[in-house]
């Protein structure tokens, strides 16, 4: 790990306090009309992500489902970081080959020299200036769907269909507040009271989702939408990390029949499981969060091979890609190693 002065110890849990996420991100958008100074342009921008991060994993899924790999290049940070920044330690020499940076922090400082907030993934970087454009992860995936249409692959699904946007937004809001962020409120709670409240809210929402998905294959409509992408990345991490590390332990995902089948259905859909790296996920949470795992020991379990077992959700109908088609295989440079994808405990 990093030197003590850059340790993440004390960075996540505040004694006696409820965990509160800072949701103020760089609001700049990349749009067709370029109104913020950054027009849609194939090859101009680089998506910086980390497979370990659920917020970044969303962008990897949507980019792949829509076929934006040739239009938006990808830089991947390693699963661990210090208090300063995510780093490019997966690349030769620890340097991103396009930006020439060792740390994502450098792209933030290229635009905002005194940037005072956390250096987060995902981030879109303007390659000509090597400066960050935005780290507003909820908007990034929506803009991939709506602003980058001319660069979508043939057969790309509509992940944000206009007639369903109000419902997608409403479902996504509850999923974020109660589930995506709810697991963090449990894990980073600074008091028993804060933890108890977060725990109750989380499982109330998971029960609501179980009821909603009992008779329908997807969260909104009969196809995969943005709402499913947002829920999936939390479910994929639930048994590997959140159940134990974050004390979200009323049940494992594998003990919630509807959500477990739903998650496996998505995992086995091209674009979801093949962007998931369980090894990096576990290493990130257990090594970086020294507040709650000071030994930094990464557990060997659970056995994750059951993600490939039959889910039976086809009987509910639905058309995963609507009138579109599945994406082809991942680009060779972006393939998750098999032992990281469905490792056997």
Automatic annotation (TrEMBL):
Q: Which domain of life is it from?
A: Bacteria
The GST C-terminal domain, residue ranges: 135-285
Q: Which CDD domains match?
A: GST_C_Omega_like
Q: Name one Pfam family in it.
A: GST_N_2
Classification via Gene3D superfamilies: 1.20.1050.10, Glutaredoxin (3.40.30.10)
> Do you know which InterPro entries this protein is assigned to?
Glutathione-S-Trfase_C-like (IPR010987), Glutathione-S-Trfase_C_sf (IPR036282), Glutathione_S-Trfase (IPR040079), Glutathione_S-Trfase_N (IPR004045), GST_Omega-like_C (IPR047047), GST_Omega/GSH (IPR016639), Thioredoxin-like_sf (IPR036249)
Where are the annotated segments for Disordered?
A: 308-345
Among PANTHER family, the record links this protein to: GLUTATHIONE S-TRANSFERASE OMEGA-LIKE 1-RELATED, GLUTATHIONYL-HYDROQUINONE REDUCTASE
The molecule here is called: Glutathione S-transferase C-terminal domain-containing protein
High-level lineage? Bacteria, Bacillati, Actinomycetota, Actinomycetes, Propionibacteriales
């Amino acid at each position: 790990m990093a030197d003590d002065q850059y340790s993440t110890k004390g960075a996540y849990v505040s004694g006696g306090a409820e965990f509160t996420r800072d949701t103020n991100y760089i609001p700049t958008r990349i749009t067709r009309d370029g109104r913020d100074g950054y027009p849609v342009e194939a090859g101009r921008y680089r998506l910086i992500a980390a497979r370990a991060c659920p917020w970044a994993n969303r962008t990897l899924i949507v980019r792949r489902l829509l076929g934006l790999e040739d239009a938006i290049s990808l830089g991947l940070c390693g699963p661990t970081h210090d208090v300063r920044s995510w780093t490019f330690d997966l690349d030769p020499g620890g340097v991103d080959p396009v930006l020439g940076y060792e740390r994502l922090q450098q792209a933030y400082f290229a635009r905002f020299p005194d940037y005072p907030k956390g250096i987060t993934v995902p981030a879109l970087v303007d390659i000509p200036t090597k400066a960050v454009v935005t780290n507003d992860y909820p908007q990034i995936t929506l803009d991939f769907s709506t602003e980058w249409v001319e660069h979508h692959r043939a057969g790309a699904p509509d992940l944000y269909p206009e007639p369903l946007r109000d419902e997608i937004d409403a479902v996504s809001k509850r999923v974020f507040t109660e589930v995506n962020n709810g697991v963090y409120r449990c894990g980073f709670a600074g008091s028993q009271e804060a933890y108890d409240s977060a725990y109750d809210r989380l499982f109330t929402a998971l029960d609501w989702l179980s009821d909603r998905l009992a008779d329908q294959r997807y969260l909104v409509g009969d196809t995969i939408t943005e709402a499913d992408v947002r829920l999936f990345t939390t479910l994929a991490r639930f048994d590997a990390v959140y159940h134990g590390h974050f004390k979200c332990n009323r049940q494992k995902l594998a003990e919630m029949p509807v959500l477990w089948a739903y998650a496996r259905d998505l995992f086995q859909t091209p674009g979801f499981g093949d962007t998931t790296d369980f090894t990096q996920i576990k290493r990130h949470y257990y090594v970086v969060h020294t507040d709650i795992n000071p030994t930094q020991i990464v557990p060997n379990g659970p056995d994750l091979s059951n993600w490939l077992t039959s889910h039976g959700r086809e009987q509910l109908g639905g058309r995963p890609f609507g009138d579109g088609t599945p994406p082809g295989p991942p680009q060779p440079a972006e393939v998750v190693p098999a032992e990281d994808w469905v490792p056997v405990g």
